[in-house]
């Protein structure tokens, strides 16, 4: 990257708030910021292959852990900049009376969608939560694995599935149409849903990259995240 | 019985290539279509087969109306019972010779189509090629497969577009007989396009000369070849001697009209044209007799003295070019050349009956 | 697990390829032979499923065929059955995505056949259907077979739209490409490689066999 | 923003289509006309990018061309430049993904041309190249144009592999399908619909125009 | 000068269609290839043009070796300077008539190729079709475009495969003259395939009869037509009277051999076959003279009395079928029929010179 420009690879679920933080960043530093948005797993692969990325913001810790263990990030710059909560969503028109995760095993519930635990972070956490609730095995035949959170929301809103599990922030960003939150999963049911951020080792703009990481953690950054339904890092 | 009367413009509106405008009737029997290249023969066949819709007119075969612009009838080609030997064969390239012929046999018509196909191939002398694909056949073999395929269709009218142009004389001769006998048995009209005189003569129950999209003369082949009505027909049918002259006088007692061509006076059958009109006359080289003496006790009205300028020896006729004021081509046998000891430079007398001098329009 | 995925993939792709071939050749024929208003527009619109990201196509399919979809609702109200999350949904997705390939190939192949042969067949009293099967189709076979192979490959590899309408229900609607995608994204590179190898192996064999099939009989 | 994305998409698809057409016709010609061992196997292998999910193809491309890739490393060591996250990467992705369409279509179209015409041209002393351009290509034009249209559509809509190798960087490597994908995933339905409309509109117009172009001159 | 000596097996190994095995030399001038359909004429031309590689042999044109299996030389067709009128025309369907001809003109050879193309089209009488596509041309027009295209190539050897089979007699006659004059100017060998006698006679400086892939007779067309060497050649070239008989005796003083055919004794030129051998003899109908009286003071060795059984009237010859123990076809002019008042049933005497009786192998 040119010295007055940085490239931030960010999970696509961070799109809206990062665009706001980016504007703020450009104002403050005069450095242009570009975003490369995609699924965290793909972003990880790109960095491993040597893509010229300066900052990586992941939707889950696993991808960051892998990069760290293989030495692709500057470990000392790694921070968790946001958290999220898991929610059970239903169509706002739903008449099934689902009020909690336990309702999912009721016989009239035929389909429940979550993100694919292997590829979608929200799905990974959903699996943890359902496993801890002793529901995972019993729900197996009802599960529909989606490729991204958006798809879960589409299914639910269009009545294809009776319920779904997504992040709290997704419900906010999805302009909420047709979606209602039926229940929150308590924090103990899953690992903390952390959003890690770090500077990529091969960056040629270490300082500017560092500034972006700092900005996400700054009060201004945090308030933007909060506005979009994320929880503060700590 | 085939009746076809129609008009069809070919080419773009602003640059007409040709306008077909025909009215033809073909009874049971073989009707030969004769005409120069580009005269419109193929186009006429295509209209009858329904490949091409005329601009207006009416085409009837037997009692089936194939086309009638006034009544808005256009029977699609699938429904017309037409056998067609295409000028460019159009053998299906992915089928063997036998499969091509089998394809021509209408489903359900024959009890044993394979046998029929073999029979046809045998008849046309190409039974050995049954299992070959078209590109493995010689030109003449392809043409015969196309003929076999058309004959296989059991049609109500048969259209043959130069079906024997690519086969050798001896095969052709045999196939002509087959075609006649097939026609006689089937009792349907055959329209037969050819450029070949002897085909026309051997096959034609009647003949039509096509010129620039029109039927310009009809009659038996012999009649037309002997007495072509116009200079251009004469050219097409191959009358060798044609001259432009002027009417000099009518000899009513004799029943002849004297035509002056250059310095020659030629007696033709009496006609009603005014003296001094320009006329074209045609004399077939075959109708001229050669003598070494000036004969007088003879019925021929014209006796012209001349000198042999050239001798063309051809396998089926020998031609003399005799100069007697005008140059005349004269057809003789080779034995006559030997017997009369004809040489370039010999003086000869040409005898031409008045009836052999044709006034062309 | 792999075996089940593979079985499903083969089932889906076989049915899709058959449907595509039949419908595509038919439509290709109509586009080649019939004149009607908006013909070329129709042809252009038919290529759309190639241009849109499959996920988007899948999204539109849900809007159309989902339980609450325009058509899906009628179907659901009548039969209580919906196409989403069934293997039939996967077939539909694969069919829609790969269909343009077949139509375009078939149209071009049929238009390239010298129409004089068809005319000759008609003159011999053969119907349009018979002519189509015995003359047009064999003469257009190269281009049509290329279309079939392309459609097969595309349908075999399709997963974006499939995922959307058929869902990813392990052991039920998970096709091979989906499994590979999953393996790649979740970093199971070994697994991914194996699956990709199987998938490509099958594809290569099928395409290879089709190629051999369409090879001209050597004649001299 | 939309304008820039569109511009990029058009740039990428134009170059990709040209590259695909030239290389695809050439390769199609070789497959059609030359005999060599493993020819049909090569043809089969060439269809692979159609079978694998584009993301997976993209992944393999990155392994090959990335800074640490087999080829990419050499390139990087020599020039200090790498193809990942550049619009050239997008061109490469689109090219690789759509290439099989062209090769297959071109091969079939060229094989369908009656070789006698080419022979006639050779006998007239024309070289193979001249014969190719003046005889084979015009006579195969229908099938080849169908291949070009299909490749164009596929390249225009490509996003899986592109995302992988070129990234999804607005204003830099974000093509239309990527923007649509992004909009869909982030729930910006309005935006998604508009983008999809523009994309499909352009595709329809281009395909329609090509169709008109390939329409036989009406002659009677 | 063209020298071609080669072998080529056609068809599959187990079911040979035909083996071509020729050794032919064609000097500057027009060499006619004559032969029945399927004899292998086209295949020979294809081998010379390089479309088809012989199994073995050597083909040389001028001092360029086109093919030599021993030396491993195979010049590709692009490099052979061959003009070729294909039997099936092979006009490029996407080019107009003029563009087709232009394509034949080698780049850089002519200063003004368009003018040359127009010139050729004009010469062949198809200038009006210049802007039409092949499918808009009649069969004969297509053939002439193909001819123009081949003539345009300025080759070292010209191969013409029945180039005038689809045009009418009058056009053909004109084009034959053009072809001769082009050959005379170009001074290269022309190989001309035809089924047509008069084309062969008018064009052929020499002629080869092809039979089953072999050259079975060579000579001037006239020689071959007059004295075909075998029965099958006689059939191909159209000798009308052929009989199987036995040698009765040799008359050394006379220089004749008497052949018995049924009850007839026919004098033929003296030969060396043992008495009683079976022989085939051929007599061309044109070589028989008809007389009403039994002439004795005449050189003809054979005088056969017979009765006219039939009269066939054709446009270019009239044929009598005369029964005199054997049935003989006799060609006469129509005027002779009239003059001698020949009718079915008339008794006539046929005069046949011994030299006109050909022993066929
Ligand atoms: N589609 C067309 N457009 C323009 N002109 C055409 C078309 N079809 C035929 N013609 C012209 O009409 C004339 C008659 O063609 P047609 O094929 O009927 O001739 P033909 O009598 O069969 O000649 P030939 O003996 O050479 O086969 C030709 O001059 C031809 O060029
Ligand atoms: N590829 C092939 N496979 C098998 N047989 C063939 C092949 N090509 C030609 N033949 C056969 O060889 C023979 C000679 O063919 P060729 O085309 O040379 O004949 P031709 O003398 O030109 O006849 P024509 O006057 O009918 O055109 C034919 O009987 C033909 O069927
Ligand atoms: Mg014609
Ligand atoms: Mg031939």
Order of strands, widest sheet of chain B: 7-8-9-3-10-11
Counting helices, strands and paired strands, the structural category of chain B is: alpha+beta
β-strand percent of chain C reads under 5%
Low confidence ranges of chain C:
none
Write down how many β-strands of chain C occur, each being a DSSP E stretch of 2 or more residues: 0
Overall pLDDT score of chain C: 86
Q: How many distinct helices of chain B?
A: 9
CATH superfamily descriptor of chain C: MetI-like
Give me the CATH architecture of chain C, please: Orthogonal Bundle
Biggest sheet of chain C, in brief? none
Radius of gyration from the alpha-carbon trace of chain C, in angstroms: 20 Å
Share of helical residues of chain B: 10-25%
Distance between the termini of chain B: 31 Å
Show unreliable segments of chain B: none
Structural class of chain C: mainly alpha
Q: CATH top level of chain C? A: Mainly Alpha
How do the helices and strands line up, and which of them pair or pack?
The complex is a heteropentamer, with 1 copy of chain A (234 residues), 2 copies of chain B (361 residues) and 2 copies of chain C (220 residues).
Chain A: E1 5-11, H1 15-29, E2 32-38, H2 40-48, E3 55-57, H3 61-69, E4 79-84, E5 86-91, E6 112-115, H4 121-132, H5 136-139, E7 143-146, H6 149-157, E8 163-167, H7 168-173, E9 179-184, E10 193-199, H8 206-217, H9 219-227, E11 231-232
Parallel strand pairs in A: 1-2, 1-3, 6-7, 6-8
Antiparallel strand pairs in A: 3-10, 4-10, 4-11, 5-8, 5-9
Helix pairs in contact in A: 1-8, 1-9, 2-3
Chain B: E1 2-11, E2 16-26, E3 29-35, H1 41-49, E4 56-61, E5 64-68, E6 73-74, E7 82-85, H2 97-104, H3 113-123, H4 139-151, E8 157-161, H5 169-186, E9 189-194, H6 197-203, E10 206-211, E11 214-219, H7 221-226, H8 231-237, E12 241-251, E13 256-261, E14 264-269, E15 278-283, E16 288-291, E17 302-313, E18 318-324, E19 326-332, H9 334-339, E20 347-352, E21 358-360
Parallel strand pairs in B: 3-9, 3-10, 7-8, 8-9
Antiparallel strand pairs in B: 1-2, 1-4, 4-5, 5-6, 10-11, 12-13, 12-15, 13-14, 15-21, 16-20, 17-18, 17-20, 18-19
Helix pairs in contact in B: 2-3, 2-4
Chain C: H1 2-33, H2 39-46, H3 48-51, H4 54-65, H5 70-79, H6 87-112, H7 115-123, H8 128-139, H9 141-157, H10 160-166, H11 176-185, H12 189-214
Helix pairs in contact in C: 1-6, 1-9, 4-5, 4-10, 6-9, 6-10, 7-8, 9-12, 11-12
The complex binds adenosine-5'-triphosphate (2 copies) and magnesium ion (MG) (2 copies).
